[in-house]
């Protein structure tokens, strides 16, 4: 499995040497490779923002999880499979036609910031700092890192299919 630090290379690697026509190409109703990268970058950056905003808050406790979260958590975080297709949260919807250089830089910066945050907060806040995921419920910083790796791989497969014209 990919390490968190490898996210930029895993997502941007297939686009190396490809022109902006590939970056912006996507079938009707589906995101282009550039929009996929923008979505992943935003997701990582927003998670880092929320975790950072809670760094000095008192210890938290994970909320009780309903059965669907208990079922989906090992499927998504363990196996790395997204069993249902869902609409991304509004904050993570990509802009249309994102700027390539800026979006790639945002992805790299978000990953670097998240790693720096992990270095600052772990292991001290390992089990008492949570951010709610819309499907999986409260996740720790390490669980978020795992989610972002799995999420990136999910979108990497989409990106490669888009580049093949599928």
Characteristics:
2 strands, mainly alpha, single chain, 54% helix, 166 residues, Four Helix Bundle (Hemerythrin (Met), subunit A), globular
Write the layout of secondary structure elements.
Elements: H1 7-12, H2 20-23, H3 33-53, H4 67-79, H5 100-121, E1 131-133, E2 137-139, H6 141-163
Antiparallel strand pairs: 1-2
Give structural notes.
The protein is mainly alpha-helical and 166 residues long. The protein has one domain: Four Helix Bundle (Hemerythrin (Met), subunit A). Helices cover 54% and strands 4% of the residues. The chain contains 6 helices and 2 strands. The chain has a two-stranded antiparallel sheet with strand order 1-2. A hairpin with a 3-residue loop joins strand 1 and strand 2. Helix 3 packs parallel to helix 5 and helix 3 packs antiparallel against helix 6. The two termini are 25 Å apart. The model has no long low-confidence stretch (mean pLDDT 93).
Structural shape: globular
Second rung of CATH, namely the architecture: Up-down Bundle
Could you tell me the mean pLDDT? Answer: 93
- Helices and strands, in order, run as HHHHHEEH
